[in-house]
Design a protein that fits this description.
Elements: H1 2-21, H2 24-41, H3 49-57, H4 62-76, H5 81-88, H6 90-96, H7 110-124, H8 129-143, H9 151-170, H10 174-188, H11 190-224, E1 230-235, H12 238-248, E2 259-265, H13 268-281, E3 290-291, E4 304-308, E5 319-325, H14 326-334, H15 336-342, H16 345-368, H17 372-384, E6 387-391, E7 397-401, H18 406-413, E8 421-425, E9 428-429, E10 442-446, H19 458-471
Parallel strand pairs: 2-5
Antiparallel strand pairs: 1-2, 3-4, 4-5, 6-7, 8-9, 8-10
Length: about 475
Amino acid sequence: MGRDWQNWANSRLFLEKVRNAFGPEEAELVRRAHDFATEKLQGQRPPLYNVAGLLLDQKADAVTLAAALLAPTIWHAGIPLPEIKEAFGETVASTLADFGSPAALRTDTEPHRRKDIHVLLASFTGNPRKVVLRLAFRLMELEHVSEPTKESGRNLARETLDLYVPLADRLGLSMLRKQLEEKSFRILYPDTYRDLKQQVAPIQSEDDRCLNILMDGVKRLLEKNGIEGEVQGRTKSLYGIYSKMTRYGASLQDIMDRIGLRIIVSSVPECYSVLGLLHSHFRPIPGTFDDYIGLPKENGYQSLHTCVYPVRDISHKPIEFQIRTVLMHMEAEYGVAAHWRYKSAEAAAANNHKQSRWIESLVDQHRNAPDSDGFMELLYRQVYHDRLVIFGNGGQILRLPENATVQDFVERANPEVSPPFVIRVNGEIAHMGRVLRDGDTVEIVGGNDPAIGVQPSEKAALTLFRAEKLESPGGK
């Protein structure tokens, strides 16, 4: 009786949140889907609002929420898709077409695993909402892994890190990605998870104290300069700390971006104004500036990143700042889940097409990969391998993989100059095998023209100016 009452109360709370989040027509769609599913399932499954509530927090639109509520009626009550289409329309029905019940990939043989991956990816094509739904249902599955030591739970977690996390990253679902990582980390490495949590606990209160002081100071700085903005504090997730420690052989004390501040403003010019204010009041660390506004990440992520030296008597660790607009923030945190809700119909459709093409390319990559492990490694590199920002002739900016050489730069830059030519890295002559570092400037000089290249565009010049400013010893 107590649990039934709690489920009823939570269900009412979910519907109240829906009414507050959507207009009357969209809220009514979600309410009808909720009531339909409640009637058809008759309490045989866990509370319906679990996945839908998660998606509501992810800023998903009403169609995605309705589909999340209705999916179990197809899996567990045998409701045919035409009935869903008749009651809720084509868009909801198409989101649920070929959307099978959640299940881990078969791992008994490579052919079975390969086939399951292909079927899963192929089911996503044409409708990225399906990916959002699948990720949300997977997170709920991880929540219900009661015995982390069982092989079935470990397979689920390993598969999540290998396949689902890269999908979440590519679709810009930052919050969902972090939750998937954290749950999988806890299941796969329970001892490491527990030990790291214990190590972080004593310094968490100190990090929180630093963040509160810094947030107050930055808010006053913005107000003093007439800039309206929101300042948020952030601490690195356990999995984020673990990843950096294992990738770089670093200790917990070595993690530079353990704490950070996010500044959200109204416009792009204000982003650069805030950057200038920060660099005039804090001492920036050379080589840590990234302009993802001028040069977005492959998944569309946009923001300015910069790291400053510790502030005496406040922080013993460097502080990372992320500066972005409100729309960039929505994109960064909720990605494709929020496109249909916060973008115009034309912009959402264009983004839907772009993401669908990427998913189709994944199907092709999987088909051409030698085996499933090779495909998973490809996905892993797309998410976890760092990329370098290199500045070239005439304001050219290239992103290259970690450990890229001068030779890699030349091949990508495709300079309009014939050999022989000379390569200068940061003003010094360099050989083709030299390994580049983030922020290096590479000049290709040849023939009788020692100043090959055109004048930088206004955008590139701004980017270069910001990067050069980081190298100055100024700051306070």
